[in-house]
Structure prediction request, 340 residues.
Amino acid sequence: MGGGADMRIGIVGVHYGHIAGMVQSARRAPGSEIVGLVEADDGLFGRYTEQTAIPRYDNLEQMLEQARPQVVLEGVTHRDKAPLVETCAAAGVHVLLDKPLCRTLEDWERIRTAVQQNDIKLSMWFTSRSYPPFIALKQAIVDGLLGDVVSIISTHPHKTTRSGAPAWYFDPEAYTGPFHDLACHGVDQVRWLTGAECVGVHALETCRKFTETPQLTDHVQASLALSDGSMATLTADWLTPQKTPAFGDTRCIVMGTRGSAHLRAYAKDELLLVTDDREPFAPELGPGTGGGFVQDMIDAWDRGEENFISTDDVLAVAEACLLAQDSARRGGEFVTIPER
Prediction:
C-alpha cells in the first residue's frame, strides 16, 4: 500500500448483515477503487452494480488473481469466513469483515494463525463506535464526567421470524450463535469504553420462542470480568417484538465512581447523564461517522498503522464472544480468557 494510488477493494458476498453500509462507505472513499465483486445471486449482483459497474468474478481465488485487490470486504455466512480470511492472507490481502468474525473457536484459531503468518490486517464493521449516542457516551467518559467506569450493562435485542430469517440461522453447523452474532457489538463497546481487556466470562442461554425443530437459541446473557476490575453484563436475543420500529431497541447503562449514563439507540437515540456535580442532562448528539469508515481505514493502512478498530480488537472481541457461548453450552461455567 501507499504510493498515492487508490486502494484496490474487492467484495465477496452481499446478501448478509452490514455489507450494504460497508460498500456505501467504500464508494464514498476518494482513496478507493472497487475492482471486483463475487456474488452468485444475479439479483443481488444487479442491485449492487446498477449505479456503478463492478467486474464480476466467479470466486474469491479468481478475483484475487485477476483483479488484484489489496483489501477484501466480506459479507459471507459464518462458516465461510475462516476459509475466506485464510485465502486472502495467503495472497497478502487485508480484510474488512462484517460481524461476526467466524463460527467456532477452531475457526478463530485458524484466522489468528493466518493473520500472524502472513502479516495482514483485519478490521470489522462495529457500528456502535460511529453512532451518535455512543460517540457522546465515549466523550463523556474521556472527559471524566463519570469518574472510573465500574460496570456496564449492554443489551442487544434483535427482531426476526422463522420464515424471515435465513434458513442457515437454524443450522448450528453454519450459524455461530446469537451472542457472537449480536453481542459482539457490546463486547466491542465494553473494551472501547473502558480501555480494558476481557479476562473472564460466564454465560447462560435459553430457547423460549423458536422451540420447534430446528431450534434457534433466542436469548444469551453473559457476565464479563475486565482487566481493570470493572464488570459488564451483556444480553443478546432474537425476541424483539415485530411492531418495534427498528431491528432492536438497544440500551446501555454505565455506572462510574462519579456519575452514570443511560443510553438508548436505534429505535430512539438518546443519552442521559447524571454526575455528583450535575443534575440529569442530555448532551447534544452530533452526527454519525460511519460514512467515512473505509476512508479512515485506508488512511491508517497507508500509513502502516492499524485502523481504529484494529486486528487485535477484532480477534479479542470474537474470542470473548465464543468463550461466552462455550460457557453457556456448559451450563454457565466460568471461563478464563487467555492473555494475548
